[in-house]
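[job 4471] stage=fold_predict status=RUNNING
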Amino acid sequence: MENENLNVKETSWQETLTSSLSSIRSRLTEEVRRRKAVITPVEKILSALKDPHHNAVTLYEATQLLAKVSKTLVSPEESEPLINQLNLIAREKLSDLQFSFARDLRLAFEEKGITLEGPPEKLVAGLFVIHVNMATRQVNMTFSHQPVTDKKVKLDVNRVVSAYQRAKREICERNTNIEELLKQIFETCQRVLKLGDKPPEERAPIVECYRELVLTKQSNAFRKAPSKGGFLDYPKTHFIYDMLVARQENRLTFENNKLNFGPSTIEVGADSSKALFLADSALNGHFIKDIYFTREN
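[job 4471] inference complete, writing structure tokens
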């Protein structure tokens, strides 16, 4: 009986000690984790400061991370002035780096006979806009607010030039039969209106007409057995460019039926499911909500 009591007491103090030590370990582990979370960006910043110009991106990223994690260990009075100063240096060096990249990019495009215009972060090449983001080390290229690459382009001059040439070739150097396209748009517009029980002279939503237009370009085999491999794509960038050519050359009439564009409100324009931005140039254009045909005598 006495041995049993001793065993119970021993088990009791063992459990108590184990529980207490586990609690201490948990607190210390959390403390180490929080300190490591702050030390890591600090070490990166110290390394980047040895050559802040070439390490501008690392300096910027590490400073942003430090601003997030330092609040748990460092008082705002101590951390905020330091982080503000680091941010100022990082942004200044990023700006210098962006200027240098834009200069090299301009030279590379000039060798191709193309003049880049605009500030370093937003360069214009013909109908295309090149958005340079030094913080993410990426370039995004657009035409009429639409991306023209499947993914972001790495911050490399040769890759940007190649991406531009490929996009220009795929979008602007196609052989499009504008007359046949106008015929397809007219028939598509009439079909969309008919499906909505609207008279043929009414306005039809341009987004719905574009989707229907893509379907009309598919083969009979695809319609019978739809498949990814048999799908004939007609990207928005192609449609927008074709509409730009038709407007510039004033080729908007099919059998005395003239194509017109109905601008959208600002609110609708922000919704890509209801409006489409038709470019007039790299930076200018209009959000279009509807299209409609008027009869010309």
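[job 4471] summary: Residues 19 and 141 are 59 Å apart (CA to CA).
[job 4471] exit 0
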